[in-house]
Amino acid sequence: MSNSPNEIDNLEHLFSRLPGLGPRSARRIVLHLLKKKDTLMPSLASSLTVAMKSIVSCSLCGNIDIINPCSICTDIKRDNKVICVVEGVTDLWALQKVSSFRGLFHVLGGVLSALDGIGPADLRIEPLIRRINDNKISEIIIALPVTVDGQTTAHYLKEEISKLNIAVTQLSHGVPVGGELDYLDDGTISAAINSRRAF
Ligand SMILES: [Zn+2]
Q1: Cα-to-centroid distance, 16 and ligand 1 (Å)
Q2: How far is the CA of 149 from the centre of ligand 1 (A)?
Q3: How far apart are CA 57 and CA 43, in angstroms?
Q4: Could you identify which of 65, 101, 136, 162 might form a hypothetical disulfide with 70, taking C-beta atoms 3.0 to 4.6 angstroms apart as the criterion?
Q5: Where are the domains of the chain?
Q6: 176: CA distance to ligand 1 center in Å?
């Protein structure tokens, strides 16, 4: 049994559910917040409330923003005939930083995984096919992780998209095996997308 008040236990429990945090680090964070009760806590609480109220998921690409459709989907300077397919929002942001890519994105929301029971219906594949058909897309760039699940998903997508008769390309080598885009430097991402190859 914990000797701390319920309020603290609740906070610890909530923080321990965040990625990368266990009970010990959750406790450290809570104690730190309590130490900064008058400075850090109010701004954290209000930022969480503001984020909860204003941040929405883009109904087209799956990005998160304060407008829907998001600022990328509504940017008329972008090439709306090319869509780069990524696993998650952090990958989108990593590629977005690379100014050489001026197309649109599509967030799948994960990759196929037999182990975790994630099938095609659990990912945003259907909306992708719809976008391709509705917008006369000319090229799909697949930028999924170089892992077994990532590449299984890439092959599945290629099969599905090839039926629609449009070009499918994949990021070039330079993205390390198991590499997550989020961790790569801008130069590597930029080179991988500029020298993409037919898939
Ligand atoms: Zn969008």
Answers
A1: 31
A2: 25
A3: 24
A4: 65
A5: 6-54, 72-198
A6: 27
How many helices (H) does the chain have, and how many strands (E)?
A: 7, 7
| pLDDT tens readout for residues 46-79 | 999 999 999 999 999 999 999 999 999 999 999 9
Counting Cβ atoms within 10 Å, is residue 43 exposed (0-12), middle (13-18) or buried (19+)?
Answer: exposed
Residue 165 CA to ligand 1 centre (angstroms): 24
Top-tier CATH class for 72-198: alpha beta
How far apart CA 80 and CA 136 sit, in angstroms, is: 9
164 CA distance to ligand 1 middle (Å): 22
CATH architecture label of 6-54 = Orthogonal Bundle (1.10)
Kindly give the distance from the C-alpha atom of residue 77 to the centroid of ligand 1, in angstroms, as a whole number. 14
